[in-house]
Amino acid sequence: MGGFGSGRKWGKPTVDDRRSLDVRRLARDGHLTPGTACSWEWTRRGEVVSSIGFYVQCDRIWLTYQHQERGGEWRNMSYPVILDRTPCHLGGQRVWWRCPARNCGRRVAVLYAGEVFACRHCYKLAYPSQRETCDDRSSRRANTLRRRLKWEPGILNGNGVKPKGMHWRTFWRLQAQHDAFVNVTLTGLARRFRLLDN
After folding, report:
1. Among 19, 27, 20, residue whose Cα is nearest residue 86
2. CA 54 to chain centre
3. Which comes out higher in pLDDT, residue 69 or 94?
4. Could you give the angle at the alpha carbon of 72 between the alpha carbons of 67 and 77, nearest 5°?
5. Closest Cα to residue 84, out of 107, 65, 115?
6. Lowest CB count within 10 Å: 52, 110, 157, 166, which one?
7. pLDDT per position as a tens digit, 21-48
């Protein structure tokens, strides 16, 4: 969920605006064994909204799906995406996609849906945090500290008490950081709504 100012009209689309295929998750779930044929589904509120089929070979995956461009005819898509592997420092290998978009070939962990599945650079996608204002970022950091302190979410709910088992010194440090982030957030909001000069 974006904060105030997030959304497409405020800048380029983000990675959250597209369906994605994460090669790390496929590897973790055991879907990258050569000879594997299965499908992946995306759901919204428990209902399947999109799916893709894939067949795994040693060094590539064949993706199969249907694509519709802006209300046009559905087209059947089928093409290979090369898998790249790099050694890990403590043994084993890490798997990567090679972006299948024309003239790209970047080694990436995540591909994003479109006419073809491609990297975020090809689709010019930003991360949501890149669209945050200073006060959005401060609000997010304050709420992260609130979770750590086991306080009620939301910076307007006031400070809570020291969690059981936490050292006082740690508590005071985290509370001071939290209060500084809250001050930045409230100052930014006041400027945004022209409650402050400058």
Report:
1. 27
2. 23
3. 94
4. 20
5. 107
6. 157
7. 999 998 898 888 899 898 888 888 888 8
